[in-house]
Specification:
Strand order of the largest sheet of chain A: 2-1-6-5-4-3
Helix content of chain B: 25-40%
CATH topology of the largest domain in chain B: Naphthalene 1,2-dioxygenase Alpha Subunit, Chain A, domain 1
Helix content of chain A: 10-25%
Number of helices of chain B: 14
Number of helices of chain A: 3
Oligomer: heterodimer
Strand content of chain A: over 45%
CATH superfamily of the largest domain in chain B: Naphthalene 1,2-dioxygenase Alpha Subunit, Chain A, domain 1
Radius of gyration of chain B: 23 Å
Distance between the termini of chain A: 27 Å
Shape of chain B: globular
Structural class of chain A: alpha+beta
Distance between the termini of chain B: 43 Å
CATH class of chain A: Alpha Beta
Number of domains of chain B: 2
CATH architecture of chain A: Roll
Shape of chain A: globular
Structural class of chain B: alpha+beta
CATH class of the largest domain in chain B: Alpha Beta
Chain lengths: 164, 460
């Protein structure tokens, strides 16, 4: 695969890594200084826009912050993550939305994640939109920025990176 | 060895007595709760009537209704409430229910509107709660008696505010708000006086539910004993951050840096209670660079408590203010005996620069969000408690005893400089994990339930 086809492939790979719990492979898809942002809703129709003055569900500007999450769910020390939920990410409507610079592309997509919690035998579906910004990295692409819009933000007990 | 206890203690208790559910014998050093307190649906209905519908409840912030026609919606227990600033600038609180057919009037969480139109038959209310339009009234062939009835929204029986926090009650027979809060005001001041222009909830909603009784949050929001077990995975993340790995921007308080640091718990009248501990990392407070200015404004005692101390607190029955890693105000709304809705607000100083606000936000998100590294572990544990207790196989719980051997009554050397006069206190290290902090709310719970059952005033 070449060009934007392989950029699109990274977006799909990312979802697959999460469902297969290949955490290190998932991490390796991001740049070291990646932005990973899940804005909160400010009111019924508006998302928060500025992470320095408004609340986010998650706001990271460093891949090392994603490592914290992986360590937590792999630790067997987190009651919310033990046993870990099983997930299936469904992606659709993947479209390139721009090319902000050389070797740099942006995509949008719609997602849903079906989550099953073995400890309660309950399932839930989180859903929303992704915006990915990818940078060319040799033969492939890395995620430099991912913005996750969570449409159903009235959360059943919890959510986590593998649910989004 | 104890045997399996599948008895229904509440059914065996004398009519109107709730003491059978709370084994409170200070002279014997005993305090136990019966699990029915968390699991019995009949008790839940009584809690709504005798506690939530008869005491003060936190509604929201004055900053949300500071301009004419600003409004927000909330609940007192099961009851929907609309808080609105009228044309004249005065804030009113009303049942958020149309007088015509009882529809919930306003479905919007917050906003600005001169009027509220019921979606059913189009009755309209202004921002002061007055009915200003009954659709087709002229042609309605109403009997003259209809005009004798007030068609405006029903106002709450009491409304009050303290340091930017608005409270309301469905019961006119409540003490003045300041008396109700009592010495809890010292701790509210620590939160609400941080900004020289006051404090506000930072925009962005974080709301979630858990499948457990509302009192699991009441307990856990004051629980220091669970930190080193429920949050072991979070401790692991902090261990890494201490050596420069993991999230470099979390601005997270290292709760576990000093497990021998001093802690104290204070119980007050009306069920309010506080747990405090030393803050070994005051530099993570956004106001730390100008602590001297803060000292001048609020005085030494409060400035010290804002910076080198942390606290978790309960304003009975269902609001918690905590100033540890960030400043959080949480409301836990009971929906059913085994379902609770959590709303968390990250508080920030009005007008503070983005860098300082960012410090608050990162710490809050890291720990307190339902997508954070700590709160999900709490919520899941509440659900495990509900599962364990709902079986009915366990009767008396043993989780209310830590600190009973160190109780003091009245003032002591710690409380004197604060100018507070707790009913009781207990001191120890963080590892003491004091559980006496739960006693005041459950004593108040029993008092209000018994007063309700006896049809006696809630606050004689």
């Amino acid at each position: 695969m070449t060009g934007t086809a392989s950029a699109r492939d990274v977006i799909e790979q990312e979802a697959i890594c999460l469902d297969e719990r290949r955490w290190q492979d998932w991490l390796a898809l991001f740049t070291e200084d990646c932005v990973y942002w899940v804005p909160a809703w400010k009111d019924d129709d508006t998302l928060t826009a500025d992470p320095q003055t408004e609340l986010s569900h998650i706001y990271y500007i460093d891949r090392a912050a994603l490592e914290d999450r992986i360590i937590r769910v792999s630790s067997n020390l987190s009651p919310a993550s033990t046993p870990l939920a099983r997930t299936a990410h469904i992606l659709g409507g993947i479209r390139q939305t721009g090319a902000p610079g050389p070797g740099r592309v942006t995509f949008r997509s719609s997602w849903s994640t079906h989550v099953f919690w073995p400890q309660s035998n309950l399932s839930h579906t989180f859903f929303g939109r992704y915006e990915h910004e990818l940078v060319e990295d040799g033969e492939s692409w890395l995620i430099a920025r991912k913005v996750i819009t969570l449409q159903n933000d009235y959360l059943p007990s919890m959510t986590d990176f593998y649910c989004l | 060895m104890d045997s399996i206890d599948i008895s229904d203690a509440h059914r065996q208790r004398p009519a109107g007595s709730f003491r059978a559910l709370i084994d409170d014998r200070p002279d014997d050093g005993v305090f136990r709760l019966h699990r029915d307190v968390y699991t019995d649906p009949a008790l839940f209905d009584l809690e709504m009537r005798h506690i939530f519908e008869r005491s003060w409840s936190f509604l929201g912030f004055t900053s949300q209704v500071s301009q004419p026609h600003d409004f927000f919606t909330t609940h007192i227990g099961r009851v929907p409430v609309l808080v609105s600033c009228g044309e004249d600038g005065s804030v009113g609180a009303f049942l958020n229910i149309c007088r015509h057919k009882g529809a919930e009037l306003c479905a919007v969480r917050q906003g600005k509107s001169k009027s509220h139109v019921c979606p059913y038959h189009g009755w309209i209310y202004d921002s002061s709660g007055r009915n200003i339009h009954i659709k087709d009234q002229d042609q309605g062939a109403y009997h003259p008696s209809f005009d004798q009835v007030d068609h405006g929204l029903v106002p709450l029986a009491a409304i009050g505010s303290y340091k930017g926090l608005i409270f309301g009650s469905l019961n006119a027979d409540v003490p003045p708000l300041e008396d109700f809060l009592g010495d809890m005001r010292f701790f509210i001041d620590l939160a609400m006086e941080q900004g020289e222009n006051g404090m506000e909830p930072i925009p962005g909603r974080t709301q979630y539910t858990y499948r457990g009784n509302w009192k699991f949050q009441l307990d856990n929001g004051l629980d220091s004993y669970h930190l080193t077990s429920t949050h072991l995975s979070f401790m692991r993340a902090l261990d890494r951050r201490r050596v420069g790995e993991g999230n470099p921007h979390g601005n997270q308080t290292d709760f576990f840096k000093d497990s021998h640091c001093d802690t104290a718990s204070f119980g007050f009248d009306h069920g309010h209670t506080v747990f405090t501990m030393d803050n070994t990392e005051p530099h993570r407070r956004p106001f730390w660079p100008y602590i001297d200015k803060l000292r001048d404004r609020v005085g030494d005692a409060k400035a010290d408590w804002m910076s080198i101390k942390m606290f978790n607190s309960l304003v009975f029955p269902n609001m918690q203010l905590a100033h540890n890693t960030a400043l959080i105000l949480r409301v836990f709304r009971p929906i059913a005996v085994d379902l609770t809705e959590m709303t968390s607000y990250c508080l920030g100083a009005i007008g503070e620069p983005p860098g300082e606000r960012g410090m608050r936000l990162r710490a809050f998100e890291d720990f307190y969000n339902a997508a954070g590294l700590a709160t999900p572990d709490d919520s899941v544990v509440y659900e495990r408690c509900q599962q364990g207790m709902a079986t009915g196989a366990i009767g008396w719980l043993q989780g209310f005893s830590r600190g009973l051997g160190a109780l003091e009554t009245g003032q002591n050397d710690v409380t004197r400089p604060m100018g507070i006069n707790p009913v009781e206190s207990s001191m120890g290290t963080l590892q003491s994990g004091q559980e006496v902090v739960y006693h005041p709310p459950y004593r108040e719970w029993a008092r209000l339930m018994e007063a309700g059952e006896a049809a006696a005033p809630a606050y004689p």
